[in-house]
Amino acid sequence: MPDRLPSLVALRAFEAAARHISFAQAANELSVTPAALSYQIKSLEADMGAPLFHRLNRAVELTEAGRILLPGLSTAFQDMRGAWNAAKRFVDPSRLTITAGPSFTAKWLAPRMFHFAEKHPDLELRFIATLKLVDFARDDVDIAIRFGQGEDPGLFSEMLYEGFITPMMHPDVATRLTKPSDLLSETLIHDDSLSFLPNPPNWDRWFEAVGVEHAPLKGPRFSQADHAVDLALEGNGVVMGRASITARHLRAGQLVAPFRIALTAPVQYRIVCPAGTENRPAVALFRNWAREEIDKDRSLGDGFEKIEIGQDR
């Protein structure tokens, strides 16, 4: 029959070898011997009636037929892996895998998850702290908490939190400050995690908002928000703190925000998951819990004059 597909094992062997451009690496990935992999590829070439690789002295190269075959096969195997993972997650409702950025995981998510786990002891929770944009079709992830301006086409996405940014410090440091210009005598801690924005809400923007002129600002710089906050918690400077990262410390009195002027930016946290899975019991439980926790933090913004920082200066 002209439409008969060749062996799936042979197609998988070819896809791995073509992706790596190496029979040895493909054999290692598939946990087979190079000889077994080579046999499968030769079988596939026999079905094709043409070679798929040029065998060179110490390397291989795809033929034109191989280059035509690879993209469709790679997509097909990725779709199969995604379908398999989705089905496994469906039949295993006791497991929930959540990914979020390292700072949000360390300062907001992880410290609170004990209470969620306590309410749902039969639910196995897994966390992946990464800034990588996960692919739900490929990665074994149920929920992503994303931060930024981006949209999430083809996915279920709901806004979780927008928040605000303002100078925050240890209470002992606050006793030395009576007006915004006093901050210029302190160590200013720079959180560069929002530097990807066209007009980031930083110390320069805040001093501009309160009408304080200043020379170029110095001070330690951090690419991770939680690292900048940790320095302020030790009383070693003042940080432009993001309420989403510092909420727990503000409520506990470990940090204070004495100047009631805050910046906002066109970014937000979003809960994202594959469309159609948002009402899966474990996912719905987490969504509801996260919204309740965020609601507890909203009062931290009471009494602040909030100044929105646009995308263009």
State the gist of this model:
The chain is α/β, with parallel strands linked by helices and 313 residues long.
Structural key phrases:
313 residues, Arc Repressor Mutant, subunit A, D-Maltodextrin-Binding Protein, domain 2, 3 domains, 42% helix, 19% strand, elongated
How is this structure best described in words?
Helix content is 42%, strand content 19%. The protein has 313 residues and is an alpha/beta fold. The protein folds into 3 domains: 73 residues, Winged helix-like DNA-binding domain superfamily/Winged helix DNA-binding domain (Arc Repressor Mutant, subunit A), CATH 1.10.10.10; 103 residues, 3-Layer(aba) Sandwich (D-Maltodextrin-Binding Protein, domain 2); 110 residues, 3-Layer(aba) Sandwich (D-Maltodextrin-Binding Protein, domain 2), CATH 3.40.190. Helix 1 crosses helix 2 and helix 1 packs across helix 4. The model has no long low-confidence stretch (mean pLDDT 90).
Work out the count of structural domains: 3
Helical content (DSSP H or I, runs of 4+): 40-55%
Instruction: Report the CATH C-level class of the largest domain.
Output: Alpha Beta
Coarse structural class: alpha/beta
Report the strand count: 13
Distance between the termini: 65 Å
- pLDDT averaged over residues: 90
Query: Which parts are unreliable, with pLDDT below 50 for 5 consecutive residues or more?
Result: none
**What Rg do the Cα atoms give?**
26 Å
Q: CATH superfamily of the largest domain, called what?
A: Periplasmic binding protein-like II
What portion of the residues fall into strands of 2 or more residues?
Answer: 15-25%
Biggest sheet, strands in spatial order? Answer: 4-3-5-12-6
| CATH fold naming of the largest domain | D-Maltodextrin-Binding Protein, domain 2
Main sheet? 5 strands, mixed
Compute the number of helices.
10
The coarse silhouette is elongated
